[in-house]
Write a structure and sequence with these properties.
147 residues; mainly alpha; two-stranded parallel ribbon; 6 helices
Length: 147
Amino acid sequence: MFEGLSIWDEKSPDGDYAYRKLQGTYPVISLSFAKIKETSYQNTRKRICQIITKLYDQYDFLLDSGKLNENEKRLYRKVSADMEDYVAADSLNALSDYLMRYYGKRVIILLDEYDTPMQEAYVNGYGEEMAAFTRSLFNAAFKTNPY
């Protein structure tokens, strides 16, 4: 991602490529909302939940890692395209908690095209519902997330 940028060639005082050493050492949750172009709130919400579900599928090794208790495993399995709002709102925060415990390092969350669903919601008249849903999701994932 950073190859060709000045940070890629940044050296520490001892002459090492300081940032290259860090590459790949932190867990990363990466998602994009670029393809979410739905005309209704229900379909937009479902698409966002599908994206989150694919992330959970990617990290399903966590279920057998010994890092999750039985309640966390039950919540993990509730993540789906049709999950309830409270599960969706906490899903990225919870996944980052699980990954931090597994890897022993804080998690980087990258979200591309976060505004695409909001733009579609505005154009198609469901902006208030979408704002409420994304506010809960983003608050837990980014603003109040210690992981």
